[in-house]
Amino acid sequence: MRRFLSCMAVLLLALVPAACSSGGDGGAGGETNLRINLTDAPMMSMRQVNVTITSVRIHQSADAAPGAAGWHEIPVTAPMPVDLMRLRGGVLQELCSTQLAAGHYQQVRLVMMQNAGSGPPYHNSVMTADGQMHPVDMPGELKIVHSFNVAQGALTDLTLDFDAQRSMRQRGNGSYFMQPVIGASSSVH
Predict the structure, then answer these.
(1) Could you give the strand order of the β-sheet that contains 72-75, starting from the edge strand earlier in sequence?
(2) What is this structure's pTM?
(3) How far apart (Å, rounded) are the C-alpha atoms in residues 97 and 130?
(4) Phi-psi region for residue 27, left (φ > 0), alpha (ψ -120 to 50) or beta?
(5) Radius of gyration for the chain, computed over Cα atoms and rounded to the nearest angstrom
(6) 60: Cβ–Cβ under 8 A, 6 or more apart, which residues?
(7) What pLDDT, in 10s, does the model give residues 16-33?
(8) What's the CA gap between 129 and 105, in Å, rounded?
(9) Residue 20: its pLDDT value, please?
């Protein structure tokens, strides 16, 4: 599960820069490019782990609360379920990209679409080894604390590694929920 969630996080980060645009005061002056990617580590017990991210939020403070000033909201171009199982082995999916003020950033939040109603289609789901699709209860926002720099005139890649294997949980009644385990890395080109 955690592996799944980590991969999901990487995928979400990949999608954020391309789909979003935001302004802001980066302190270093000028804007540069940020691309957010998502990936996942291998998982054996599930055929699919689908998550739907609607936007990525970025802040310069690791302690900023969701309602605090200074957030840069980057909408995902076309929110749809992403199968984290397809992101194994270093495969990346771009979530979005944006122009962002150069500077130092420390917090990323993935805004998740919730399942609507009790039946399919599901925004967040898991397909078990027997081919059965089950809804997954997901938090509304996933917080990732990761320090990275956005340099003037360069492209910064932020990759969120959603560890689905370590993130998925099953309750005693058979229903599924996610306790996301997401790693992050960044590089400047």
Answers:
(1) 72-75, 53-59, 103-112, 141-150
(2) 0.76
(3) 37
(4) left
(5) 16
(6) 26, 27, 70, 103, 104, 105, 106, 107
(7) 333 444 444 444 567 788
(8) 40
(9) 44
